[in-house]
Design brief:
By secondary structure, the chain is of the alpha+beta class. It contains four helices and ten strands. 39% of the residues are buried. Keywords: Signal.
């Protein structure tokens, strides 16, 4: 009798474990994103000065999987006028974000800059005269594995102004980025179709805790990018 009870208990545990694993494996590709604040995270990154920059664009976890990795976001970025940093050199400390996925505060995966029409060298011009740029953070922890990419997008001043953010630069950066992404774009033989949705209530509006004291309108743009 004891042996039968032990076998039954083992089967129950095995069944529960299989259900849990199945649920976990189905998370990616089934939701657009998870709200970072539900897992103790934030919709602002850590700018290393006690303040944060808004994660104001999300590449949906329902996008084509080929987009949702470093090589994929670089190719998509090149399709909409961005590329890797000048000579591959990043100046300044990387920022980190906590996306509430169980990974805690994690440094940006990559930072990409406006390329002014030249994926090969245009970001060197952006470094000099300023422009749009964005940092990429991936929501991939075991507690919230959406696979979504959270982007901190902003328009910055030129090198003489030490790349500070232009007035209203977070909202402007988000809007310019989204406008460039929407519709059909292509690069390196890959064609993308992107649709946008503005999300309210995910990020607080105002300037409290925001880097440079620049107010944000609280809107996050959700982009779903599908490879055709």
């Amino acid at each position: 009798m004891v042996a039968l009870q032990a076998i039954a208990a083992a089967l129950l545990i095995s069944s529960s474990l299989a259900t849990y694993i199945g649920t976990a494996s189905q998370r990616r590709g089934t939701v657009a994103y998870y709200d970072p604040t539900n897992g103790g995270g934030s919709m602002f990154d850590n700018a290393n000065d006690g303040y944060g920059e808004p994660l104001n664009v999300i590449i949906s976890g329902l996008s084509s999987p080929e987009v949702l990795n470093e090589d994929g976001i670089i190719n998509f970025a090149r399709a909409i006028g961005f590329s890797i940093e000048c000579l591959g050199i990043h100046l300044g400390a990387p920022m980190s974000a906590n996306l509430g996925d169980g990974n805690g505060w994690v440094n940006q995966t990559i930072e990409l800059r406006e390329d002014y029409g030249s994926a090969a060298a245009g970001t060197c011009l952006e470094t000099l005269i300023g422009g749009n740029h964005f940092r990429v953070f991936v929501q991939n922890g075991t507690e919230a594995d959406s696979g979504a990419l959270f982007l901190a997008v902003s328009r910055e001043e030129d090198v003489i102004e030490d790349h500070t953010i232009v007035p209203n630069g977070y909202d402007i950066g988000r809007d310019d980025f989204s406008a460039a992404a929407m519709g059909t774009t292509s690069y390196n033989g890959v064609t993308y179709n992107t649709v946008a949705e503005n999300i309210t209530g995910l990020m607080p509006a105002g300037s409290t805790g925001v880097n440079h004291g620049i107010a944000v309108d609280g809107i996050v743009t959700l982009l779903t990018v599908t490879i055709e």
